[in-house]
Amino acid sequence: MPKYNKLVRDYIPQIIEQSGSKYSVKTLGNEEYIIELKKKMHEEIAEYEEAKNDQDAVEELADLLELVYAAAESHGTSVEHLERVRMTKAEKRGAFKDKVFLIEVEDE
Length: 108
What we know:
Layout: H1 12-18, H2 30-50, H3 54-74, H4 79-93
């Protein structure tokens, strides 16, 4: 039986069971959950970097967004509050829409 030892989406155990396979899982505590969310984000970022087309990239971005929402909740905030924080930062410092790439800054 292959070992995965990674965080998976909530319905994965049922999907495995429906395929006729056996599995084992455990429910994580909050601290371990946050650690595993971070690991899963790295995994999904790598998959996004490897995406060969827009459709695959969007699929990976959706996975990342789901993880961001889960992480926000695990840190005691809502998706709505997270969005407000994002908007405030965008108003103060801008977003990433203009594709600005900083080369260097001359020190005085």
